[in-house]
Every structure is written in C-alpha cells, then in structure tokens.
C-alpha cells in the first residue's frame, strides 16, 4: 500500500466560539485542543505524514508545538486559506511523493476513536472514498431562509451527520479539488467535492463523541468526554 498522509485543518477563526483565542488553541485538560488531535494521529503507526494547516499568524506557534510535543510525523506547518476548502488544498499540495491515501480531519475534533479511523480508511481503500458519520437523532427540516417556513421534512432514516476524518485515494481528492476550483464551487466538506464528480462516497458509522468543538456549549461537553470517555487525567 502507498503512503498514508493526514491533513489536519486548523486555520479557521473560530468565530462561532466567540473567544479572543481561536478555539483550536483553547486548553482542553493539560493542552490545547489542537495538540490532542495531533497526538491522536501521531500515535497511529500507519500514518506516514501529517500536514498541519493553520492561520498564517499561527505557523510559528504551531511549529513550537511540533517540537515541544515531539510530533515527529508533522512534516509541514502551512498557512491555510479563506475557506476550509482552500486550507485542504494547501495541504494536498504539500503531501510527500508516494502518498496514495489521505485522511482530512478537523483540528477541532480531538475525540475520534482510533478504530473508527481505521474503519473509515479501510472503506475508502475498498470503494475510493469514505467519511465517518452518525445517524441524526433529531428530525431535520428544510426551512425557507426568509420567512422560516418549513419547506419539507426529509425521511430521517436517510439522514446522517457527517464528521471527519474523511478518507480518499489522493488522486481522486486532488481531481475533486481541481474541479471545484475551476468551477468556483465551495463545499463544506471534502466529500461534497468528490460527490460532484459522480464518484462513490460511503459513510462509516462512528460515534457521537467525535464532536466538532464549535460553540461555547461544546466546551463542557468536551471536558466531560476527555475525562470520562477518553480517559485522560483531569488537569
Ligand atoms: N479557512 C478555514 C476554515 C476552517 N478551517 C478548519 O476547519 C475545521 C472545521 O471548521 P470550523 O469548525 O467551521 O472552524 P472555524 O471556521 O474556525 O469556525 P467558525 O465557522 O465558527 O469561524 C476547523 O478545525 C477549522 O480550523 C480551516 O482550516 N480553514
Ligand atoms: C467537515 C465537517 O466537519 C463535516 O461535518 C464540517 O462540514 C465542517 O464545517 P465547518 O463549518 O467548516 O465547521
């Protein structure tokens, strides 16, 4: 099997969190959220390389994390772009020669279960692309943006909340990003770029602990998961 690269995207501003410090740098237990995520993939033997994509002003700080936490698999710390998609594209361009498979993961998802990472990668190696996801628990409705009138109620049985990592054959994801750039298409995840090529993307069921830390309400939940599910000592 060709090399496995991981792109960790952490170049966002965290505006929904509303903190002066971008959310990926907020302390979770003894260290920043982003460091938890980086260490998770550092400790996966099969990972050959990690590309870290951060805000331009945070490159030096994150290079210090790489040294300080001995994140030896992080080969590049790059400045991201205006959109998440731009940041991923920066990461794709940095992957080493011989990389065949790539995982794209949000830097603010520190709790993904290792087994689920492997299951997602295995599915991608079977069908080309795969993403972690969980069945939605709420009823989801399509609502008119102007008057908030409900337009439709999709069958919940077909709805999944999509997570990361998202796993792809590198050549396919590169093709998808090139097409999106050419067409000026912006998607909220990488799978949507691959889907628009007409390529198959499959979900792999993860768990509800793989939260994307986004708003202030997520912080106590993250602290609880850290200390009651992922087993790290309380700070
Ligand atoms: N231009 C961007 C935007 C987002 N991200 C990263 O993509 C992940 C998921 O994005 P999100 O949770 O939306 O983070 P932010 O964009 O920072 O949050 P907000 O939308 O509240 O500003 C995060 O790790 C974020 O840092 C990125 O690398 N580059
Ligand atoms: C990629 C993602 O985490 C899948 O749910 C999500 O689309 C990221 O969205 P965000 O607005 O960039 O957080």
UniProtKB/TrEMBL annotation:
Database matches in CDD domains: CDP-ME_synthetase
Enzyme class, UniProt record, top EC level: transferase
Catalytic activity: 2-C-methyl-D-erythritol 4-phosphate + CTP + H(+) = 4-CDP-2-C-methyl-D-erythritol + diphosphate
Keywords from the UniProt entry: Isoprene biosynthesis, Nucleotidyltransferase, Transferase
Function of the protein: Catalyzes the formation of 4-diphosphocytidyl-2-C-methyl-D-erythritol from CTP and 2-C-methyl-D-erythritol 4-phosphate (MEP).
PANTHER family referenced in this protein's UniProt entry, alphabetically: 2-C-METHYL-D-ERYTHRITOL 4-PHOSPHATE CYTIDYLYLTRANSFERASE, CHLOROPLASTIC (PTHR32125:SF4)
Name the record gives this protein: 2-C-methyl-D-erythritol 4-phosphate cytidylyltransferase
Organism: Paenibacillus pectinilyticus
Lineage: Bacteria, Bacillati, Bacillota, Bacilli, Bacillales
């Amino acid at each position: 099997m060709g090399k496995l690269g991981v792109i960790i995207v952490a170049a966002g501003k965290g505006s929904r969190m509303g903190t002066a410090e971008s959310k990926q740098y907020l302390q979770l237990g003894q260290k920043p959220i982003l460091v938890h995520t980086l260490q998770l993939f550092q400790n996966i033997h099969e990972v050959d390389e990690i590309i870290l994509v951060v805000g331009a002003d945070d490159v030096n700080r994150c290079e210090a994390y790489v040294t300080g936490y001995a994140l030896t698999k992080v080969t590049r710390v790059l400045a991201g772009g205006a959109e998440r998609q731009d940041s991923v594209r920066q990461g794709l361009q940095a992957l080493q020669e011989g990389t065949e498979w790539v995982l794209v993961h949000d830097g603010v998802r520190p709790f993904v279960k290792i087994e689920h990472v492997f299951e997602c990668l295995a599915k991608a190696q079977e069908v080309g692309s795969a993403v972690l996801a969980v069945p939605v628990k709420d009823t989801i409705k399509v609502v008119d943006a102007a008057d908030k009138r409900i337009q439709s109620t999709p069958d919940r049985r077909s709805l999944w909340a999509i997570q990361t990592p998202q796993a792809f054959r590198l050549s396919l994801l590169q093709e998808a990003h090139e097409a999106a750039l050419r067409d000026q298409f912006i998607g909220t995840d990488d799978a949507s770029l691959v889907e628009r090529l007409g390529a198959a993307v499959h979900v792999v069921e993860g768990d509800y602990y793989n939260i994307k830390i986004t708003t202030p309400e997520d912080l106590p939940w993250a602290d609880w998961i850290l200390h009651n599910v992922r087993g790290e000592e309380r700070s």
